[in-house]
Fold:
Amino acid sequence: MAVRLLTAGRADEALEWVRKPGSRVKGQDDALSPSRVQIEASILEALDDKTAAQALRWQCFESRLSAEILRDYLKNLPDFDDIEAETRALQYGLSHSVPELALRFYLDWPRLDLAAQVILQHHAHWDGVLWHSLPKTAETLEHEHQAAATILYRALLDDILKAARSKAYGHGARYLEKLVLLAVAADPFLPEGVMEHEAYMAELRKSHGRKSGFWGRIG
Structure:
């Protein structure tokens, strides 16, 4: 509705509508959802309040680390100011309280070096239950950021074995194959407190050595 009102040149009414408590944008009613912020910022610009539009975009970025919102923010800055602002935004992501958001932001930007830094910085945080996203992320990073990829592959494998998810043993075997291939390059860059490959393998066999259904898949 807000978009329709804005298109019709009724920006004041559009702003009032989009700010109503509980008004929904694409199934969300969060005031800082990126989709909603994009609409409200466009309305503010139509009302010639670019300062408020930019402040809203930055607030949304700080909360959600949305790459799309940051691009809108930078695009609307004066010439040359965008470089400094981008540097500040990229640095801000490293201290964000939600590592998953920081990781997704750096993958989307893309800055794979900073994505890897987030993974290493929060190496104990990653959980293999995120099987829908971590394998793809690990694969994206494994060619240039082997230590970060190792952290994710281990998280995925550990989750499978700890839960004895026999139907996923095939995936686990592939993750272990990846770990073997990455070990030489990854070991020197693993964070303090993270086992090198040989120690990790020894611990894996000690804790899960009886899971023959898994080890039988290892060539």
